[in-house]
Design goal:
The longest helix has 20 residues. β1, α1 and β2 form a beta-alpha-beta unit. The chain has one domain: 3-Layer(aba) Sandwich (Rossmann fold), CATH 3.40.50. It has about 180 residues and is of the alpha/beta class. The protein is globular. The protein has five helices and six strands, in the order βαβαβαβαββα.
Length: about 180
């Protein structure tokens, strides 16, 4: 089972990126989470630029999405929404159709008490418009501060760790039946 994991943050040490790395560590055998960390390499989307062949970085992203059994996106919350760079990525993907019917989980992590709920809602809506199969049981809003992870980037809270494992199991189950 292959899951493409995308962080919506450009910061290398963002909580979102760290959480995806922790999810990869917590994944059961047979579940492979592969990160794609070229968000900053994508050109600004414009329909005039969405041609054949697409820019190389876009072709790479679309190819990885096509090969993946499921998609996992983890977004920070900027001004009560997902960041523009993540929206840009989704705009590059939509016309290819590679997300149509693809099981997807929408995560948001934030130190705020809401855990980035508004950004997650925005992400879910966009994925649904793209015709991805959003797996709500696999989606998460986590309240998490940097202090919630140890020096190796592992979650300190066993409840949150279990929540991530449960989310991954739900995403896997959805992908197996897709």
């Amino acid at each position: 089972m292959r899951v493409l994991a995308i962080s919506g943050s450009l910061r290398a040490q963002s909580l979102n990126t760290l959480l995806l790395k922790e999810a990869a560590r917590l994944a059961t055998p047979g579940l492979v989470l592969s990160g794609w960390e070229r968000l900053d390499d994508l050109p600004h989307y414009s329909p005039e630029r969405d041609t054949e062949p697409p820019p190389a970085v876009v072709a790479e992203l679309r190819g990885l999405l096509a090969e993946a059994d499921a998609l996992l996106v983890c977004t920070p919350e900027y001004i009560h929404a997902m960041p523009a760079v993540l929206k840009n990525l989704l705009e590059w993907v939509v016309s290819s159709g590679v997300c149509v019917g693809k099981p997807a989980a929408a995560w948001s992590v934030s130190p705020s008490l809401e855990g980035g709920a508004k950004a997650q809602t925005s992400l879910v809506h966009t994925l649904e418009v793209m015709s991805a199969k959003v797996v709500h049981e696999a989606s998460r809003c986590l309240t998490l501060a940097r202090s919630g992870m140890d020096a190796e980037g592992h979650l300190k809270d066993p409840v949150q760790e279990n929540s991530i494992r449960t989310a991954l199991a739900s995403l896997t189950a959805a992908a197996e039946t897709a």
